[in-house]
Write a structure and sequence with these properties.
single chain, mainly alpha, elongated
């Protein structure tokens, strides 16, 4: 606000031209003109209306797939890109899919965070005495 007042005061009280103010302060001419010409600084901005998502008809399907994936091991779960490709290749859902990849991925990330609630336990690596090895045995499942 100080910058705006300073620029308008240079014009109003010292009688400097807009070009002289722009040269003196180093601001662009359009910026100086905007601040000097502005009379009401208390204008209200319109709040953007929330629009319904085009992905909304597919929310139940995606949520169901995420719930199914939560029962699987972490390595075998679908990513947002995989869910998008599955929706696109499905006959019924492909017709309803009118959004891009990033929209689906963003929804999947947000929804996974909501459903998981971050209650998963974490592993502690490197907590073994010196000269001992730590080995992880796991199973591989094909889906």
């Amino acid at each position: 606000m100080d910058k705006q007042n300073y620029l308008s005061n240079l014009s109003e009280f010292e009688g400097m031209s807009l070009r002289a103010i722009a040269e003196k302060t180093g601001h662009h001419f359009n910026t100086v003109k905007k601040y000097v010409d502005k009379e009401d600084w208390n204008t209200e901005y319109k709040v953007r209306k929330k629009r319904a998502s085009l992905l909304e008809p597919l929310y139940p399907v995606i949520d169901e797939w995420i719930q199914e994936d939560l029962k699987r091991k972490r390595k075998h779960r679908r990513t947002g890109t995989k869910i998008y490709n599955d929706l696109k290749s499905h006959e019924e859902h492909g017709k309803l899919l009118t959004v891009g990849l990033q929209t689906v991925v963003a929804y999947v990330i947000r929804r996974k965070k909501e459903l998981c609630n971050n209650n998963q336990s974490t592993a502690m690596y490197g907590m073994h005495p010196m000269c001992y090895a730590q080995v992880d045995f796991s199973e591989v499942t094909n889906y």
